[in-house]
Each structure stands twice: as C-alpha cells, then as structure tokens.
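Components:
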Amino acid sequence: MDEEKIERMDEQKKNRYDYKFIVNSIEQHAKVLDLGCGRGSLLKLLREKRQIEGRGIELVQGKVQKCIENGVSVVHGDLDEGLKHYKDKSFDYVIFNETIQVVKNSLLVLKEALRVGKKVIVSFPNFGHWQIRFSYFFSGMMPKSRSLPYEWYNTPNIRLLTVKDFRDVCRKNHIRIIKEVNYMNLNGRGTSVAIFPNLFASNSIFVVSK
Amino acid sequence: MTQKRSVGTVETQYFKIDKDMKLECGKKLGPITLAYETYGTLDKHKGNAVLIFHALSGDAHAAGYHKGEDKPGWWDTSIGPEKAFDTDKYFVICINVIGGCKGSTGPASIDPKTKKPYGIEFPILTIKDMIAAQKILIDHLGIKKLLAVSGGSMGGMQALQWAVTYPESIKLVIPIATAVRQSAMNVAFHEVGRRAIITDPNWSGGHYYGKKIPEHGLAVARMVGHITYLSDHSMREKFGRNLQDKDKLDFSFETEFQVEGYLRYQGDAFVKRFDANSYLYITKAIDYFDLTDNNTIPLEDVFAKSKAKFLVISFGADWLYTKEESVEIVRALQRNGIDVAYFNIESNYGHDAFLLDDEVQTSIIKNFLENNYG
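Structure:
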C-alpha cells in the first residue's frame, strides 16, 4: 500500500467504529498509553474528546514525526523491547489498536500492558471471519479482506488471531474480559455482530484487566 | 528547500559577575565574564526565552553573522526566522561556557591575583559550574522561566543538568545526541586528545601564552575528536579511498588520501581559533559529567523533581553518543512519569548530524516548541 492510501485511511479513522468505541470506553482525564500509536490520531482524538493525558510508542520514523506534529508525546521504539521502564499501574488504559497482531512477542507485550495499565483495550481484525475462511478455502491462497489487505510477503500482521483465540488466551492467562464488542467493518462504519461473532465479525475490541 | 532567512548581523555581548562563584571542585572563581548573544525579541511576559547550549568547540555565536564575516554562527541552520528555533517567535540566547576561549572567562583570561593568564591555575570545572554561571545571567535578564533549553552533545548535557538543577525554571527540554553520563569510550578519546596537548613541548606546563602555542598537540586532539564526530558511512561517502591531489600513490608519509588531508586541515584550522588549555578544561568537564553523581543517586531518581516536558533526539549512526544512551535518558524520564517524546533520526551521518540542516530535526523541534508555546 502506498503512503497516500495509508494517509487517506488514517483520515477516515476518526469516524471509525473502533475509534468511537474506544473514546466512549475512556473516562475524562484518564492516563492513556497507546502502543503502536501510528500518527497519533487516536491519542489526539482522545485528548480533544476526553482531555486525556496521552503517551504513545511507535516504531516507524515518519509516523513518529507526524505524532510530534500532532502534539502527541511519542517514544520512537519497538514494543518487542518491552515496557519495563514503566511502573506498575502507571496508566488507566493501555491500548493496542490493531497492534497485537504485528508484534513478535504478543503475549509478553500483552502481559506487560496488563502490568502497567489498570485496563487494557485490544482491537484486532478477526481472522475467523467467514470471508477469510471462504477465501482461503476456495482460492487456496493467503486470504485478503478489507481489514487485512496485504500480500503474504509484505503483511505486517504476523500474529493473526480470531475472536475465539483471544478469549482462549485470556482464559489461559487469567485475564478478565470486562467488555467485548464484535462488529462488521463496512467502509469505516461498523455494525455490531451479536450472533456467531467469530464467524460474522470482521473486527473485535476487548477491554480486559488482570 | 527554500532559502531561509538569517537573523542578520549580530554582536556578542558581555556580562560581568563580580562575586566569586564557588565551584564543584571546592575552589572559587571570580570575577567572571560571560560572552553571550541573543536573537529575536523577549516578549513582555518574558515567556518566550530559549536557551541554547554549545558543544565542546562552540561559542556564543550560534546564529547570524558578525560584521565583516561571511561564515554564520555554528547553529545557523536551526536558529533564525522560520527555522527550528524560530526567532520570529522566540528570544534565543546562547552563552559561551566558562572555561571557554570565546569571550567568557577561561584559562587564557587574566587572573586578577597574578595579572597573568590563569593557564592551568584555572580551577577544574564541571557542567554544573557552567550552568550555575548561566543561571546568574538568565536571572539578570529577568527571565524566571525559560520556555526551552536545548543543545547537542555537551550542549545536551547542559540541558539535562538545567532540568535537574533548576526544575522550576524550565518548561521544555530538548537534549540532542547526548547521555546521562560520559561513557568510558568517550573519556578515552578525550584523554588521547589531552595527552597530545600536554606532551607537546610547547605546552610548557600550560603557561604558553605569549609564546609558541602547542599547535601540534591541539591539532592532533582535534583530528581524533573529528573522527569521532563522523561515521564510517559519511567518511566512505565523502572520501572513499580518493587520493589527495594526485593520480597515483607516492609510497611516502606525505598525505596520500583525501581523508588524511581533510583531517590535517581540520586540525590546523582549529588551532587558529581555539585555545589548547580550554580544550583540556572543557573535555574534563564533559568527562566528569554524570547525572547520577558516580552512582550515588539512582538514575531513576535523578529527574524526580523535573516538571518539564522533554523531546529527546538521537541519530542512528552516532557512535559517540549512541541511540541506546538517549533511550537511557528516556527510560529514566518515563520511570518518573515525565512527559517525554523521543525521536531517533535515521541518518547516515555521525555525531555531528545535529549541526547539519536536517529536515526531520527541524520539523520535530519546530512542532514541539509550537505545540507547547503559549
């Protein structure tokens, strides 16, 4: 995907279902750490709507530069190097907005997030969605969708997961699921999916804690 | 890139501190003169002052041109109208450090007791001493709170020390290509430079003023130093194995390669503008720099009182003050919940990259200041 296309997608984010859900989940003046904060658009939105005190971590230089333009306090770095330097419970919320599937040590980073944050919000594209299952079944090639538009050789998504997978990892690691929303992502707008979410939801957002 | 405007013709000003200053080494120094320059206008609330610190070989002349000179100040790429430190908005101050040789009191100054140059009777200085003198001038200018402090290398050390010593007096801190303490490797390079000066017969125990100066020693010190400011990549790109004004090798000890000629030129040029004893004193001050006071204060407690907001910048190919050392600053700040942004600029140039006209550096400093001003 080219830079321009990414920019355009970024702009649309403001009206995105996940952004609205995250904004609605967070209280006024909360302390928020956004892992893989991209261009800082979510933190900026949270600052405008919720007057939060935000921090971000981002790996890509161009995005870090945009964060600073947006007045977002961002640290240029790799999540796989961990969050050791943050004290326990130093944030009200730690956010993985479509980040959990791009890091190498997903579980380790998730556990670290649960240590430094009182609550953790995880959003990810659901790999169990029927279109993906069908696409793989019939084409025999790595599936693509609106949420997962990459080729196998350039995808940043190296730890793809399904709604069930996430529930399972929570159960096995004694992570409490506070809230869960599964939805169908359609041109930025979303419709929540209540029946068979692992099959019908293209995206999911979980609010979890230890 | 569009041609940026300059602050124009500038003049160095002088400020005299009549009282003796007690130094970290226990000795006293006084009276003290500070050479400084300012650019832009101080607003009526005195809330737009930015203090810039120079590095080892720098001086108060950070931007613009001295009358009759065609070479601008050392950070003219970053200070000026619409530049990173926008002089249309901010009042920028740069002070020559004590121990220096560009107008502030240093080893070449006259000792009022002996009426002769101090030489090595000049007391040993630290970064803390340098900033204590600067604070007196900032107070004199009536500035209660600096909008920002910034500098690269030793300038970054001063910025960090200001944040630690005067936490109430700063809003923003921008340390560039620096560290919480001087590393063993960097002490080692400095020691080579100092030995080159001290073993030069002309050094004469530091009392060479009015006589032949230790030019060979100082030139070698600068050559060593200059290598550490470059990177393998920048030297390959700039010189490769190109020969100096010749087509084939001479098989002699004369200058064969361009890189040798370049270093010799840098060494010789430096001798004309810098005092050897100042080089000794300033490198010493850098080597003593350690925010943890030799591990007597845990690093995570160092910034405990700081209320400033930080923007830490490093350069990928800087092997003198590495990216990891900047990350160490960032982590210490994060442990204290301090608002910090960190940027590692991918650059092929080495330590002196911060002095170049780097678009990314300009953009992030400019945006960081604008977003936090007013």
